[in-house]
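QA checklist item 7 of 12: single-chain prediction sanity check.
[x] sequence parsed
[x] length recorded as 321
[x] structure emitted
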Amino acid sequence: MRLSELPLEVVADCPLCHESGARDFVSRGDGMQVVQCTTCSFLYLNPRPVNEALQRIYSTAYYESSDEMCGYREYLRREREALDGGWHIGYTILDLIEQFEPLLGKKVIEVGSGSGSVLRIAAQKGATVQGIESCAEMAQYIQKHLAMSVMHGSLEDADLPDDAFDLVLLCEVIEHLSDPLGAARQLQKCLKPGGLLFLTTPNAGCTGRFGGSWYGFHASYEHVSYFDMASLNRLIGQASLDVLGAWSFGDTHPDVHDKKSDTASTLLKSVLRSFASELAPSLLNRYRRTKRRQTLYPCTGIEQAHSLWLLAQKAATPYAE
């Protein structure tokens, strides 16, 4: 599905600082325009699909897409393989969070819970878990196969109670939202005093090195917001949260879009998948577990790994008015 085929709206003000004024930054691979706020430098899609149309993207087809430019290919198979192999990214995420706060006995909610893999790992660590998922079929899958509580719908439609959760997980979600600041403020309200928000998002700071060739502009075309560390810090501050830690994760030399390499890359992935499933699964899983431990970097001001991770906390006592 091409986003340009959906009903579009012009964004009058920056979704982050709400000031008017933006300049063209890059035309994505699908022809949609990314602009940069002239006040806070935030990058966002303009025009963008109206929110109702954007929500309709997240169907079963999105999770079993034949086109990885918008969606996932063989999503559930990959998730099950990662969990069974012990190298699912959820292990790294939750181990990191537990360096700050143990999950045993904690109440955890994940927004955009997908297959429920991260919730399953959190439950194994002794947390009480629930999720919010836009795709009805994925929500049903979690309820049926994992026996976990998941609400089908968007965050905007969720009536979350105030001061209810010890931890909110927002993994690869904030870049999908038309109103990221509104979402962050909503999640801040549902956290208990002292509660934690953990989020991940593609690192738009890579544009400082790769410009318009950054792969984030040539894949995952459902993304409408692009964060670097500065814009994440601004988002968290405006949501009345305090940053506890920030990291960049993944390859320190992110993929640069190169059409000539697409065919070779697809062939290589096919060969590696065959090797992983038939010849040496245990060896590959051991390598993946080791690689997960070696590719998490504390943010130092120049973050070039492809993903940003951030842990924030709600004040234990209310902010003074």
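[x] summary fact logged: The chain has one domain: 81-314.
[ ] second reviewer sign-off
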